[in-house]
Amino acid sequence: MNAMSFADTAPVARSRTSDPSNVPGVELVDISVRFGSLTVVSHVNLSIKAGEFFTLLGPSGCGKTTLLRAIAGFYRQFEGSISIGGSVVDDIPAHRRNTGMVFQNYAIFPHLNVWDNVAYGLASRKISGAEAAQRVTETLEMVDLKGYEKRMPKQLSGGQQQRVVIARAIAIRPRVLLMDEPLANLDAKLRVRLRNDLKILQRSLGITTIYVTHDQEEALSLSDRLAVISGGEVLQVGTPEDVYARPGTLRVAEFIGEGNFLRGHATGGGGRTTVLLRSGATIAATGPGSDCRGEIWVGFRPQDVSLHPVTEASSGIVGTLRARTYLGSYVSYEVDCGLDRSISVQVVATAVPEGMQEGSQVALRVEPAQVMLFPGDDKAVEL
After folding, report:
1. Among 9, 125, 275, 380, which residue's Cβ finds the most Cβ atoms within 10 Å?
2. How far is CA 157 from CA 146, 264, 296, in A?
3. Quick one: fold of 260-375?
4. What's the rounded Cα separation, in Å, for the pair 72 and 40?
């Protein structure tokens, strides 16, 4: 795969810093976006490194696409400042911000063939002739579309059409690539394949990429870092590993991956925390937030729970299997433990203990390091 340089000169703008080594790819300072009296994005601060794959993750309507469009210049923020490559771009129109945009709906020109679709952005930038031909050829090779130059969009699959749009965006050599749920309209297997290809492509180009999605798996697999957004506010920023394993709030923990979140009361001393659940069962906690005391939320992932037959020596959480669902690589269980909600358990299909059928009495065990605690006044609401 041929590498391409994206070190083109940034749009003419006033400089924020004189030290290029400290210049972030994109910097957002106290950004708010309003439509009339409605605030869609509220006081967002983000510093995205040059060459980083950064994801804005959140549910529909949370403000992530609005924020992306503000970076692109399609929307003007109500307050705050946006910098690209160390230069403030607040007063620079979208077409001069040197960004490439990939939309969810393919936005491919139906009357142009693949070659002309990819070359379109070059023509608008007065790049033609041999230079344009070289860029189009290189870019089509990057997205695995060599040999498709003369095909019309109707002759392409959905995945191929989206590759054309990605090629058109990177052919102009933007300083920043902005992607708004580009894989959402593809089927599951194709989405995974194109996701992997996209990650390899971004790494090879080293281009700063800001990616919008509501798909947690997509965000975790693609991102160097991600921001979880809800209600127009950034809840947490970190690496996928940090956000998943050490969520800063209950809302983040609920949204990232699956989890069991239960009410309890935490006590402890001597470096040990014990949580008393409302059923009377207890569970030890040494994971994130284990210094919480009093009324709390206790959380743990379904895959961190192990199932065991009930014996006289069983302690901790005991319950009844109410549902068993075979999902190929793993088996999912719902266990009624006398709490306000059932506990979800996921067991690798090849490691399911014998006798684990619906109606069976089971004991649940969770390693203390996998147990997360959150303050009791946190909101337990799905994002």
Report:
1. 275
2. 15, 51, 50
3. OB fold (Dihydrolipoamide Acetyltransferase, E2P) (2.40.50)
4. 16
H or E stretch covering 209: strand 208-213
Give the model's confidence band at 21: pLDDT under 50 very low, under 70 low, under 90 confident, else very high: very low
Q: What is the pLDDT of residues 91-130, one digit of tens each?
A: 999 989 999 999 887 688 999 999 999 999 898 888 999 9
The predicted-structure confidence for 144-181, as pLDDT tens digits, reads as follows: 999 999 999 999 998 899 999 999 999 999 999 999 99
CA 347 to chain centre: 25
User: Three-state SS for 125?
Assistant: coil
Enter the pTM of the model: 0.87
Residue 186, C-beta contacts closer than 8 angstroms, at least 6 positions apart:
158, 159, 162, 194
The domain ranges of the chain are: 20-98+174-245, 260-375
Two tokens, residue 337: 């433990």
Tokens 């919008």 found at: 212
- What whole-number distance in Å separates Cα of residue 58 and Cα of residue 61? 8
Confidence of residue 257 (pLDDT cuts 50, 70, 90): confident
Rounded to whole angstroms, how far apart are CA atoms 5 and 12?
19
Question: CA-CA distance, 76 to 374, in Å (whole number)?
Answer: 37
Residues 324, 291 contacting (CB under 8 angstroms) = no
For domain 20-98+174-245, the question of CATH label 3.40.50.300 is answered with yes
Among candidate residues 2, 59, 54, 355, the one with its CA nearest the CA of residue 231: 59
Q: By the 8 A CB rule, do 261 and 299 touch?
A: yes
> Whose CA is closest to 199, among 318, 52, 310?
52
Structure tokens at 372: 């997360």
Tokens 């040990």 belong to residue: 272
Label residues 149-184 b or e (16+ Cβ within 10 Å = b). beeebeebeebbbbbbbbbbbbbbbbbbbbbbbbbe
